[in-house]
């Protein structure tokens, strides 16, 4: 199951060229770009690992793409995303965030039901990948 | 370059070969039109206007611009060739306009589409070389990343290489630079700058580097007349004016200053003018009372004559 988080996640995976163009768009807007990765696909997992520091003072996407390629090469079997942060006063938030690499295959989620008092039913999502300990998920 | 998403679909970007129209090769191309379209002439004219003298430099830049434009035209009719090597070395004494020309060069390359952004990143040894093992590579990469899409200007490049110290990390920085200069020619243009003799020995001891730097441009020193013209250009920009006696005083000043050690061409002229402004302000203050707009604009002979250069030349 392909997870859909962040921008463009309902589209087919972006090509190298498309990623470069998106990064350039972010840089043209003065949004510093950073790269993050994780192997926990849960939608509420907001804290991904940072791949290096956010990249400031870069004008051209070629400077960022170096890091993006390295991150993907090092985390081939994990999720890698590119974030662009809008630091303007009053905004100060992630302006663009999209996944550039995902593991293959993605096992997806199971819906868990917990029965409570008065026949109340509580639901939760459980990622199959997280059955294995961190670092061993997505490896055959 | 390998696509980083082998699984990504690229059906949209690929057009079947049969549908690609055969490009008609036009019999002739309008050279003047292409020149106007590229707007390079504007940058070159600006260079002519803003920089006094430097005839050999201007000629070389013009030649390079012409080569690049012709290369573009050749590519447009299918005469493919290796992209021309763009890395350069600017040699000359301080204050001869190396940084300014580098900025214009970045603009020319940007207008012609050889670099995507056209900004100039100035770096010296401090920015590239680290202090301990493993510190140099990330530092150099960081600077290169910032320079991507533009021009990286390495001032006093010979400090990168210190042959007398074999534990110096400068060699590592040079190696990374070489790698990027070779593999990412579309992304960044590197300009090395510094004194002529020291740059020559720097290139002699780094053969890999000198073979990748195609354009060597030497910046000559300015003559006294050129320095005076520069002074006038600067004053105009600052909205000041020489009184006629100050004019002759300044000419004498320049003649004396050129002979003195640590003369830095245009930069020394700028400093001399700044000091003259200082003296003018003091003079007006000490006099007190009212001042007219003309007086505020005028630099007097006494503002120049008080300089250390005149007193030092007399035996004391």
Question: What is the gist of this entry?
Answer:
By secondary structure, chain A is of the alpha+beta class.
Secondary structure layout:
The complex is a heterodimer of chains A (140) and B (316).
Chain A: H1 16-28, E1 33-38, E2 49-50, H2 61-74, E3 79-86, E4 93-101, E5 109-115, E6 121-127
Antiparallel strand pairs in A: 1-2, 1-3, 3-4, 5-6
Helix pairs in contact in A: 1-2
Chain B: H1 31-38, H2 40-50, H3 55-76, E1 88-92, H4 98-111, E2 120-123, H5 125-128, H6 136-147, E3 151-155, H7 170-183, E4 189-194, H8 196-205, H9 207-212, E5 215-219, H10 224-238, E6 241-242, H11 244-259, H12 265-287, H13 293-297, E7 298-299, H14 301-305, H15 308-313
Mean pLDDT of chain B: 83
SSE order of chain B, one letter for each helix or strand: HHHEHEHHEHEHHEHEHHHEHH
* Strand residues, percent of chain B: 5-15%
What would the principal axes of the Cα set say about the shape of chain B? Answer: globular
Radius of gyration of chain B, CA atoms, in whole angstroms:
25 Å
Supply the number of helical segments of chain B.
15
- Total DSSP E strands of chain A: 6
The fraction of residues in strands of chain A falls at 25-35%
Main sheet overview of chain B: 5 strands, parallel
What letter string, H or E per element, gives the SSE order of chain A? HEEHEEEE
Most extensive contact? A-B, 24 and 24 residues
User: Helix share of residues of chain A?
Assistant: 10-25%
Strand order of the largest sheet of chain A: 2-1-3-4
| Spans where pLDDT lies below 50 across 5 or more residues of chain A | none
- Global structural class of chain A: alpha+beta
C-alpha-based Rg of chain A, rounded: 17 Å
- Through-space gap between termini of chain B: 70 Å
């Amino acid at each position: 199951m392909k997870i859909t988080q962040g921008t463009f996640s309902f589209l087919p995976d972006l090509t190298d060229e498309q990623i470069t163009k998106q990064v350039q768009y972010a840089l043209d807007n003065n949004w510093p770009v950073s790269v993050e990765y994780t192997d926990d696909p849960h939608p509420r997992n907001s804290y991904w690992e940072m791949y290096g520091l956010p990249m400031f003072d870069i004008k051209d996407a070629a400077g960022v793409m170096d890091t993006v390629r390295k991150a993907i090469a090092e985390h081939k079997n994990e999720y890698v995303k590119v974030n662009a942060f809008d630091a303007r006063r009053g905004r100060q938030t992630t302006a663009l965030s999209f996944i550039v690499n995902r593991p293959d295959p993605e096992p997806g989620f199971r819906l868990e039901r917990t029965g409570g008092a008065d026949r109340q039913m509580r639901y939760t999502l459980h990622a199959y990948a997280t059955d294995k300990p961190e670092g061993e998920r997505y490896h055959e | 370059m390998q696509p980083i998403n082998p699984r990504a679909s690229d059906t949209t970007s690929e057009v079947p070969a049969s549908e690609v129209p055969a490009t008609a090769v036009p019999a002739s191309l309008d050279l003047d039109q292409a020149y106007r379209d590229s707007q390079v002439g504007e940058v070159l004219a600006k260079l002519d206007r803003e920089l006094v003298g430097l005839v050999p430099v201007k000629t070389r830049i013009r030649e390079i611009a012409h080569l690049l434009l012709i290369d573009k035209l050749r590519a447009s009719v299918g005469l493919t060739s290796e992209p021309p090597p763009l890395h350069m070395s600017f040699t000359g004494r301080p204050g001869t306009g190396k940084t300014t020309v580098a900025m214009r060069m970045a603009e020319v390359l940007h207008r012609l589409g050889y670099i995507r952004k056209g900004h100039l990143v100035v770096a010296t040894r401090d920015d590239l070389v680290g202090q301990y093992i493993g510190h140099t590579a990330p530092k150099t990469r960081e600077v290169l990343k910032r320079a991507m899409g533009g021009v990286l200007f390495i001032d006093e490049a010979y400090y990168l290489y210190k042959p007398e110290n074999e534990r110096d990390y400068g060699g590592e920085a040079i190696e990374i630079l070489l790698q990027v200069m070779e593999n990412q020619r579309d992304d960044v243009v590197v300009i090395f700058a510094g004194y002529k003799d020291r740059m020559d020995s720097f290139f002699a001891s780094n053969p890999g580097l000198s073979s990748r730097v195609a354009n060597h441009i030497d910046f000559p020193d300015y003559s006294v007349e050129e320095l005076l013209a520069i002074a006038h250009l600067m004053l105009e920009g600052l909205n000041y004016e020489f009184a006629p006696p100050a004019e002759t005083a300044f000419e004498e000043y320049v003649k004396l200053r050129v002979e003195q050690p640590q003369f830095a061409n245009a930069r020394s002229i700028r400093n001399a003018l700044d000091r003259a402004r200082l003296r003018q302000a003091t003079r007006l203050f000490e006099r007190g009372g009212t001042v007219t707009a003309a007086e505020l604009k005028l630099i007097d002979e006494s503002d120049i004559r008080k300089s250390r250069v005149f007193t030092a030349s007399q035996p004391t």
